[in-house]
UniProtKB/TrEMBL annotation:
Keywords: Isomerase, RNA-binding. The keyword Secreted does not apply. It holds the Pfam family S4. Residues 2-64 form the RNA-binding S4 domain. Its EC number is 5.4.99.-. The keyword Metal-binding does not apply. It comes from Secundilactobacillus silagei JCM 19001. InterPro entries: PsdUridine_s_RsuA/RluB/E/F_cat, PsdUridine_synth_cat_dom_sf, PsdUridine_synth_RsuA/RluA, PsdUridine_synth_RsuA/RluB/E/F, PsdUridine_synth_RsuA/RluB_CS, RsuA_PseudoU_synthase, S4_RNA-bd, S4_RNA-bd_sf. This is Pseudouridine synthase. One of its GO terms (cellular component) is cytosol.
Length: 242
């Protein structure tokens, strides 16, 4: 059994604090009866309506996946390509969704969950959750070009927020380099567009970290569930109301 406001928050209806206000204001029904008591507890078998709309009450699941190339970060795909949900097989019974996306040819750390409130906080630019990437690029970026990325570059008519960048290695013979870049935004194809803007098209791209989480021990195509301490810390990073 879980407190009603906690279940609502996990379902992505609202933050826990906002859910409490909705309950006391009479917006919530459990099994057909309006509930205004904050101490009310419910199970996954209870039918919950918020403003006459049903919500999902399954227990929250938090998954860290190492996404391989040629897999789409969606629940389904009209082109019949393999999705990250296909990689879960039958091990995860709950219906989960990717938190943000990684491009078809981008690899690395992807979170999946059915906790809508947390997913919303993590993907909202307001909360500035860091994500770090390693890119193999054409050409060798100069200090000035890396400095431009640190100060923000214009993509799609808008200036990106400052990034943290580092030239990790370079190959003079092949005219390629490996660059580390950390951002807290999540615009479409952002890393690729940023590096393109300074004259270095991306050849390969991998997300290595998401907040404090890393890919340690998780091979490409594999996944693991986050432990309770990791979930707690992720909610703290996302400034999710408790």
């Amino acid at each position: 059994m879980e407190r009603l406001q906690k279940v609502m928050a996990h379902a992505g209806v609202a933050s826990r604090r906002s859910a409490e206000k909705m309950i006391t204001a009479g917006h919530v029904k459990v099994n057909g009866k309006t509930v205004t008591e904050l101490g009310t507890k419910v199970s996954k078998h209870d039918h919950i309506l918020v403003d006459e709309m049903p919500i999902q009450t399954e227990m929250p699941v938090y998954i860290l996946m190492n996404k391989p190339r040629q897999v789409v970060s969606t629940v389904s795909d009209d082109k019949h390509r393999k999705t990250v949900i296909d990689l879960l097989d039958d091990e995860i019974k709950e219906r989960v969704y990717p938190v943000g996306r990684l491009d078809y040819d981008t690899t690395g750390l992807l979170l999946l969950t059915n906790d809508g409130a947390l997913a919303n906080q993590l993907t909202h630019p307001k909360y500035e959750v860091d994500k770090s990437y390693v890119a193999k690029v054409q050409g060798i970026p100069t200090n000035d070009e890396l400095k431009r990325l640190r100060h923000g570059v214009s993509i799609d008519g808008k200036l990106t927020s400052p990034a943290r960048t580092k030239l990790m290695s370079s190959d003079e013979g092949r005219k390629t380099a490996i660059v580390s870049i950390t951002i807290h935004e999540g615009k479409n194809h952002q890393i690729k567009k940023m590096l393109q803007a300074v004259g270095h098209p991306v050849m390969k791209l991998k997300r290595e970290t998401y907040a404090f989480l890393t890919l340690k021990g998780v091979q490409p195509g594999d996944f693991r569930e986050l432990n309770p301490e990791e979930v707690k810390e992720l909610k703290r990073v996302a400034k999710l109301d408790n």
